[in-house]
Write a structure and sequence with these properties.
Strand content: 5-15%
Structural class: alpha/beta
Shape: globular
Number of helices: 22
Order of helices and strands: EHHEHHEHEHEHEHEHEHHHHHHHHHHHHH
Distance between the termini: 41 Å
Number of strands: 8
Radius of gyration: 22 Å
Strand order of the largest sheet: 1-2-3-4-5-6-7-8
Oligomer: single chain
Largest sheet: 8 strands, parallel, barrel
């Protein structure tokens, strides 16, 4: 039985605001509270990776590498943890090995300590190089599997995958329950089997969407889990993680007492309660627990972004239809776990099927590439009819997808030219050329601060205008003609669901 104090990983600087605020929290809103976060004594703070990288450039006009540096200066005593999408790095497709390697090297240099590595399809082949590169630079390799429920996913299968990750050099194992579907007694069984058969520290990550998160976390603790992901209460619950303070209080005085200071945590929560108000226009509108996630299996970050993007396209009233279509598409595509980028791939196709009024009338290139196995091997075979509609008589590849890719760093360096001031700029461009180039051009013109101010003023004016609208069902404004025109250009607009 594990009698060590439970380690806490707080997600406040990454997954909490990615799930609740569409990844919009600015670095400047993190810095004032960073010294207090550093005093807590967390096992780690998850503060980078996932959608934060491109969102920084795309929406915030920030250099994502600077976030790590600036926070590390104020939090020298805390492990920094990131979410690394294996061969997808922090993007939505596979990248060449040289891009992945240089990203890992630079991430470690700027201050990342723990790399949680996962593959959207749980295809271990896609994780091998990322794990090797992190091991080479002395980082903590946290091999992760994406927990989902389907006819082809079992607890025994997850344990066997964890054993493979151990053989590849994992320092710890993460149960990544990205949609909050892991029920308490299943969590107890899964963690218990991992502790008994794999012999590595186990970290538990879940979301509150279904309402089971705290109960599942407690059963995981009973089974001997070493670390649990939580979020400071001001940005917890709903589609984020269970509240940090609550778990700390529950375990106080027990053998698994975290030892964390509840008074200090309360101060941190009060700070983020104020910060959250700035970003309320990005809230999903979800009011509480939604057990339908057990049917739809949609992760928290996808829910908030789906809501936001349907609203932008003037199609918010189709939300329920899209939710119902997601599990149908998922089954037809071979039961992929719904986590980036597979969640966006399935979500995009489901949205198109609903909005266009005909299933698979339009199939985005990302879906076709998924069927070609360009993202890896699906957990189950793709429906033959969907395969025919997507790629005709073409046969999917059988090798590791990245084996087909040419090196990318030198090409990126050549294309970027004088805009690049450092290798970080080249890596950013190699990952997101259409996002990084405008960002770097703005920087070259000295427009970063000006853009940020204009964006902040525009957001404030928009919010004030929204608040001045009369209340009631008859006050709803019709979508603009422009919005409707955008909505009916799926190749450019609806595939935007692939973005954070």
């Amino acid at each position: 039985m594990n009698t060590q104090p439970l380690g806490i990983c707080d997600t406040i600087l990454r997954d909490a605001h990615q799930s609740l605020l569409a990844t919009r929290m600015r670095t400047d809103d993190m810095l004032p509270i960073a010294p207090k976060l550093d005093r807590v004594g967390y096992w780690s703070v998850e503060m980078w990776g996932g959608a934060t990288f491109d969102s920084a450039m795309r929406f915030l006009s920030e250099n994502p590498w600077d976030r790590v540096r600036r926070l590390k200066e104020l939090m020298p005593n805390t492990r920094f943890q990131m979410l690394l999408r294996a061969q997808n790095v922090v993007g939505y497709r596979h990248y060449p090995d040289d891009v992945l390697q240089r990203f890992v090297v630079r991430a470690k240099e700027v201050g990342i300590d723990v790399f949680r590595i996962f593959d959207a399809l749980n295809d271990v082949r896609n994780m091998e190089m990322a794990m090797r590169f992190v091991k080479d630079v002395g980082g903590h390799v946290q091999g992760s599997f994406s927990y989902t429920i389907s006819p082809v996913h079992t607890i025994g299968g997850y344990v066997e995958m964890a054993k493979q990750l151990r053989e590849l050099g994992a320092d710890s194992i993460c149960v990544k329950d990205m949609a909050g579907m892991l029920a308490p007694y299943d969590a107890y069984e899964l963690v218990g089997e991992l502790k008994a058969q794999v012999g590595l520290p186990v970290q538990f990550h879940t979301h509150y969407t279904s309402g089971m998160a705290m109960a599942s976390a407690l059963k995981a603790v009973e089974a001997g889990v070493d670390i649990v992901d939580t979020a400071i209460s001001a940005l917890s619950g709903l589609t984020a993680q269970p509240p940090t303070e609550s778990l700390v209080a529950i375990l106080k005085g027990t053998p698994r007492d975290t030892g964390l200071d509840l008074d200090l945590l309360a101060e941190i929560s009060a700070y983020f309660a104020g910060v959250r108000k700035k970003y309320r226009s990005f809230e999903s509108g979800m009011q509480g627990v939604d057990v339908r996630v057990l049917q739809y299996q949609i992760p928290g970050g996808m829910l908030s972004n789906l809501t936001s993007q349907l609203r932008q396209q003037g199609a918010a009233d189709r939300y329920e239809e899209v939710l119902a279509e997601v599990p149908r598409v998922r089954k037809e595509l071979g039961y992929p776990p719904l986590v980036t980028p597979s969640s966006q791939i399935v979500g995009t196709q489901a949205t198109l099927n609903v909005v266009l009024g005909e299933r698979y009338k339009v199939i985005p290139e990302e879906v076709k590439n998924y069927v070609r196995n360009f993202y890896g091997r699906p957990p189950a075979p793709v429906d033959p009819e969907i395969k025919r509609l997507a790629i005709g008589s073409e046969e999917p590849i059988t090798k590791r997808p990245a084996d087909l890719l040419e090196p990318g760093m030198e090409k990126a360096r050549d294309e970027l030219g004088d805009l690049a001031r450092s290798e970080e700029d080249v890596i950013s461009y190699a990952l997101f050329p259409q996002v990084a180039r405008p960002f770097l051009e703005r920087r070259a013109r000295g427009a970063d601060e000006r853009t940020a101010v204009v964006a902040a003023v525009a957001a404030k004016l928009a919010l004030e205008a929204e608040e001045q609208q009369p209340a009631g069902p008859d006050a709803r404004r019709a979508p603009s003609v422009t919005a409707w025109k955008r909505a009916w250009r799926p190749s450019r607009q609806w595939t935007g669901l692939l973005q954070p």
